[in-house]
Design a protein that fits this description.
37% of the residues lie in helices and 21% in strands. The chain is of the alpha/beta class. It has a seven-stranded mixed beta sheet with strand order 3-2-1-4-5-7-6, sandwiched between helices. β2 (52-58), α3 (61-69) and β3 form a beta-alpha-beta unit. The radius of gyration is 17 Å and the shape is globular.
Length: 233
């Protein structure tokens, strides 16, 4: 992840999606307090810095050591079901591909509700469709994949009000489906980050950037990812 996050189409597209939604929710310049929970190797945290003060939390000390290499200073070893922060202290929580890694995702969402200020927002992405389960999910230590109605129930049960619920990575869904279902060795526990030539990588980034502009205005009916923006009332 550390080697690929800044350039590989999958990561670049997802980071751009989160930043597009954040800028849409907060169009005026302001200094936000942001928690990037499940920050991984830190590329998203780095991109969030212009929006305010970012705290980067992850369960893995190894992941945080890579985040530190990026010059990120506010690093916290943290379990998502027991966040070590006081109540109502963040304007925004980013949970990008986090909930599928947490066995008790409902408790994690309740913790996110607790640390959000009233009016604060959660921006979350999770992998879509249990039918796409493969060795990729096993390798990444996922507990589940989601469909939009299930994520809606989890989020609303945590007393968060949903603003946006959409699928994403829609136009690449057939390609991902083929890789997960037809690719040899698909049941082996191995992450399927398939190398692509530089030109193809740039084309995929442009495609996702275009799709993200659509998602800014419309919910998409299917995709590889489920996206949720929710508010603490």
């Amino acid at each position: 992840m550390y080697r690929l996050e800044d350039t590989y189409w999958w990561f670049v597209g997802r980071h751009h999606l989160v930043l597009t939604l954040l800028q849409s929710a907060y169009p005026a310049e302001q200094s936000l307090s942001i928690l990037d929970v499940g920050c991984g190797t830190g590329a998203m945290s780095q991109k969030l810095a212009p929006f305010g003060t970012v705290v980067s939390a992850d369960f893995s000390p190894l992941a945080l050591s890579f985040s530190k290499r990026r010059g990120i200073g506010r690093l916290v070893v943290s379990d998502a079901v027991r966040l070590p922060f006081r109540d109502a202290c963040f304007d925004v929580v980013i949970a990008m591909d986090l909930l599928e890694h947490v066995e008790d995702d409902q408790t994690a969402l309740c913790e996110i509700h607790r640390v959000l200020k009233p009016g604060g927002r959660l921006i979350s992405t999770v992998p879509a469709y249990p039918s796409l389960w493969s060795g990729h999910d096993v390798a990444l230590m996922h507990f589940r994949r989601y469909v939009a109605p299930v994520l809606r129930r989890r989020v609303t049960a945590a007393h968060l009000r949903i603003e946006r619920l959409s699928y994403a990575m829609t136009f690449l869904f057939p390609i991902v489906w083929m890789v997960r279902k037809i690719w040899p060795g698909r049941n082996n526990p191995k992450a399927s980050l398939i190398p692509v030539p530089g030109l193809v990588n740039k084309m995929l980034v442009r495609l996702l950037t275009w799709e993200n502009h659509i998602i800014k205005h419309l919910n998409l009916p299917w995709g590889v990812t489920v996206l949720c923006v929710a508010v603490r009332p």
